[in-house]
Design goal:
With 62 residues, this protein is an alpha+beta fold. Helices cover 16% and strands 29% of the residues.
C-alpha cells in the first residue's frame, strides 16, 4: 500500500475511524467501538470490508 504525504510536512495524513466490528490493527486486537488512526487508503479498504462506516473525523498530526 502506498502512503500519501502532505506537501509541507512529509507526514502521512491520518483520519480517526471508529470500528464497527472487531479488527486487528498494527498487530493489536481492537473491538467494535474502538477508535484507530489510519491513512485515507486504509480507511477506504476498511469501509469496503465493513469494518468502519459512516462519517469519520480527520486527525491533524501537526
Amino acid at each position: 500500500m502506498s502512503k500519501s504525504k502532505t506537501a509541507d510536512s512529509g507526514q502521512v495524513e491520518k483520519v480517526e475511524v471508529t470500528l464497527a466490528k472487531p479488527h486487528i490493527h498494527g498487530r493489536q486486537r481492537c473491538k467494535a467501538g474502538d477508535k484507530i488512526k489510519v491513512t485515507a487508503e486504509q480507511k477506504a479498504w476498511l469501509e469496503k470490508q465493513g469494518v468502519v462506516g459512516g462519517q469519520q473525523e480527520e486527525v491533524n498530526n501537526g
